[in-house]
Amino acid sequence: MNKRLYFSISLTSAAVIAFQITLMQILSITQWNHFAFMIISLALLGFGTAGTVLSIFKKWFVENKTIIIPLTMILSGIFILLSVPLSQTDFARFDTFLLFAETSHIFKLVFTYIIFFLPFFFAGLAIGLIYVSYAESIGKLYFSDLLGAGIGGLGVVVLFWFLYSAFFPIIISILPIAAGVIQIRKGKKLLPLIAVSL
Questions:
Q1: Which domains does the chain have, with CATH numbers?
Q2: Is residue 125 within 8 Å of 48, Cβ to Cβ?
Q3: How far apart are CA 146 and CA 154, in angstroms?
Q4: By CB neighbour count within 10 A (0-12 exposed, 13-18 middle, 19+ buried), where does 56 fall?
């Protein structure tokens, strides 16, 4: 097993927890607190959906893990970077007071939910595939996962004292992208990852 996986899974897990807390902070400011709490269920849904997809297509994912693991990490980072700006566009920005008056705002809420769902889905897919592919090292992998989550959670809370939460997605997105980049293998398999990252 590639020893760098321990570092990659820690970075990805740190990003997931940090992004979850960041979204709760941002939504508590831009919307009511009720929508901040939905991020918890959204993160669980993302990981749960990833686990379901992984269990259904397990053979294919395991056979292509050298490509899929870094690819999904990079995709998670890209959507962390883009999700907040996309949620503030006219197509996605909803008005809480108009949810029960105008149907268009319900669709905007759904679209916003999907936008915030994707980073957790791809991160869950990457972490889940690592667990499935290297089950013999599950103890060390899970420790790396929890260590990263702890550091990410504490780190983002500390950063709240020094930076505006709007800047956090930019910083956080670096973690899973870096995690994916250090997993890239040489050769032709590198090409699709470069295309996606661009």
A1: 9-197 (1.20.1250)
A2: no
A3: 12
A4: exposed
pLDDT value of residue 187: 43
What single-letter DSSP state applies at residue 184? Answer: P
| Side chain identity at residue 124, one-letter code | G
CB-side exposure of 175: number of CA atoms within 13 Å?
Answer: 25
pLDDT digits (tens, 9 = 90+) for 102-158: 666 677 777 878 888 999 999 999 999 999 999 888 899 999 999 999 999 999 888
**Choice among 73-77, 94-98, 108-112, 151-155 with the minimum mean pLDDT:** 94-98
Tell me if 144 sits within 8 A of 12, measured CB to CB. no
Buried-exposed string 65-103: b where 16+ CB fall within 10 A, e elsewhere: bebbbbbbbbbbbbbbbebbebbeeeebbbeeeeeeeee
